[in-house]
Design goal:
14 strands; binds nicotinamide-adenine-dinucleotide; binds uridine-5'-diphosphate; 7-stranded parallel beta sheet; alpha/beta; Rossmann fold; 11 helices
Length: 355
C-alpha cells in the first residue's frame, strides 16, 4: 500500500487516540475524524504533546456523508481505521435505536462515502462480545458468533455488512478486529481512558476507587464456574492493541479480502486477580465487595490470538502489571481525566452538514 494518509474515525477516543499516537510515531500521516460525543479535543492536544506531531483533525459525524466526502476530497487517503461508535453495553439496552443508527447506519454511510472516494481498505473495531457465551476457551476466530446485547449485535451486523461488501466487490479489503478487554494507558501518563460519568468498565471504575472518587468496587458475582468464582477476561494493554492496528493495515497491503482477527493476549484473569494486580500497582489494598451478577456477563472470554500472531506478525509486548502501572500513572497524574481542559475543537476543524 502506498503511504497515503489513514483516516481514523473515533480517533479522539480511548483506543483511537492511542492508535493515532502509534501511527504518527511510525511516520504515517493521520486524519482524525470524530464528533466528540464521547471525547474531548484535549485528547488531540495530548497526542501532539506525546508525538510532537499535530494530527489533522475534523470534528464531524460519520452519519454526515457530505462531510466525509469533503474530507476524502481534501486529503489523499488510502485506508480507514473505523473506531467511531457508541460502546456501552448497558446503555445499548436502554436506547437501542441510537445504537443501531449510530453504529450500523453510520458505518454504512462511511462505506458508501469510501466507495465514492475509491478508498477500499478498512480496519473495523469489532469486539469479543460477538462470541456471546463461547463453547470453546480460548476462543478461535472460527467459534460461532452470537451477540447478546444491542451493542454486540451492532458489531456482529457490521461485520456481516463488511464481509458481504468484500464478497460482492473484490477490490475491497477489510480487517475485522475483535478486541478483548483493553486496559491501561499511554506509558507517559499523558493520555488514557477518559470516561464521562460513572465508568461501566472494571478498570476505569477501580482506578476511580483508588483516587477516592468512588467508595468501593463492586465485584459482580463470585459464583461463576471459574477458578475463584469471578468472571475471566483477557485484558490487553491499549498500546499493544493500538499496535495491532498497524499490523492489520500492513496486512491489507496483501489484499486479503475480508479477514477476522482476535486481538487479545491469550491469558485470562479473574476479577479478583485484577483486584490483586491493581492493588500491587497502587501499593495498597483497595476496597471491594462481592455483589450480584451483572445481567449479560458471561463467565469467560479469553482469546486464542494464534491467527493474529501468525498472520499479522503481531504479539503483545506489555504485561498485565505494566497495564495496571500505566493506568495508575495516568489516573494519579490526571485525577479528573481531561475534565477542566477546553474540550471543544477550534471552529476551523468543524464540518457539519447535518444541522
Ligand atoms: P470511545 O468512546 O473512547 O471512542 C469512540 C469515539 O467515537 C469517541 O471519541 C466518539 O466521540 C466517537 N464517535 C461516536 N460516534 C460517532 C459518530 N457518529 N461520528 C464520529 N465520531 C463518533 O471508545 P473506545 O473504547 O476507544 O472504542 C473504540 C471502538 O472500539 C468502538 O467502536 C468500540 O465499540 C470498540 N470496542 C471497544 C472496547 C472497549 O472495551 N473499549 C472493546 C471492544 C470494542
Ligand atoms: N466488573 C465488576 N465490577 C465492575 C465492572 C466490571 O466486577 O464495576 C466485572 C464484569 O462482571 C466482567 C469484568 O469485570 O466480568 C469486565 O467487565 P467490563 O465491563 O470491564 O468489560 P466487559 O468484559 O463486560 O466488556
Amino acid at each position: 500500500m502506498s503511504q497515503k494518509a489513514v483516516l481514523v474515525t473515533g480517533g479522539a477516543g480511548y483506543i483511537g487516540s492511542h492508535t493515532v499516537i502509534e501511527l504518527l510515531e511510525a511516520g504515517r500521516e493521520v486524519v482524525v475524524y470524530d464528533n466528540l460525543t464521547n471525547a474531548s479535543y484535549e485528547a488531540v492536544r495530548r497526542i501532539e504533546k506525546i508525538t510532537g506531531k499535530k494530527p489533522i483533525f475534523y470534528k464531524a459525524d460519520i452519519l454526515d456523508k457530505k462531510a466525509l466526502l469533503e474530507v476524502f476530497s481534501r486529503h489523499s487517503i488510502g485506508s480507514v481505521i473505523h473506531f467511531a461508535g457508541l460502546k456501552a453495553v448497558g446503555e445499548s439496552t436502554q436506547i437501542p435505536l441510537d445504537y443501531y443508527y449510530n453504529n450500523i447506519t453510520g458505518t454504512i454511510i462511511l462505506l458508501q462515502a469510501m466507495k465514492e472516494a475509491n478508498v477500499k481498505n478498512i480496519v473495523f473495531s469489532s469486539s469479543a462480545t460477538v462470541y456471546g457465551e463461547p463453547p470453546i476457551i480460548p476462543i478461535p476466530e472460527t467459534c460461532p458468533t452470537d451477540a447478546k446485547s444491542p451493542y454486540g449485535r451492532t458489531k456482529l451486523f457490521v461485520e456481516h455488512v463488511i464481509r458481504d461488501l468484500c464478497t460482492a466487490e473484490k477490490d475491497w479489503n477489510a480487517a475485522l478486529l475483535r478486541y478483548f478487554n483493553p486496559a491501561g494507558a499511554h506509558p507517559s501518563g499523558i493520555l488514557g481512558e477518559n470516561p464521562t460519568g460513572i465508568p461501566n468498565n472494571l478498570m476505569p471504575y477501580f482506578a476511580q476507587v483508588a483516587i477516592g472518587k468512588r467508595e468501593c468496587l463492586s465485584v459482580f458475582g463470585n459464583d461463576y464456574p471459574t477458578r475463584d468464582g469471578t468472571c475471566i477476561r483477557d485484558y490487553i494493554h491499549v498500546v499493544d492493541l493500538a499496535q495491532g492496528h498497524l499490523a492489520a493495515l500492513k496486512k491489507l497491503e496483501e489484499k486479503p479480502g475480508c479477514v477476522e482477527y482476535n486481538l487479545g493476549t491469550g491469558i485470562g484473569s479473574t476479577v479478583l486477580e485484577m483486584v490483586k494486580a491493581f492493588n500491587k500497582a497502587v501499593g495498597r489494598e483497595l476496597p471491594y465487595k462481592i455483589t450480584d451478577r451483572r445481567p449479560g456477563d458471561v463467565p469467560n472470554l479469553t482469546a486464542d490470538p494464534t491467527k493474529a500472531n501468525k498472520e499479522l506478525g503481531w504479539k503483545v509486548k506489555f504485561t498485565l502489571d505494566e497495564a495496571c502501572a500505566s493506568l495508575w500513572k495516568w489516573q494519579s497524574e490526571n485525577p479528573d481525566g481531561l475534565e477542566g481542559y477546553p474540550s471543544e475543537a477550534p471552529a476551523e476543524c468543524v464540518l457539519d452538514y447535518l444541522h
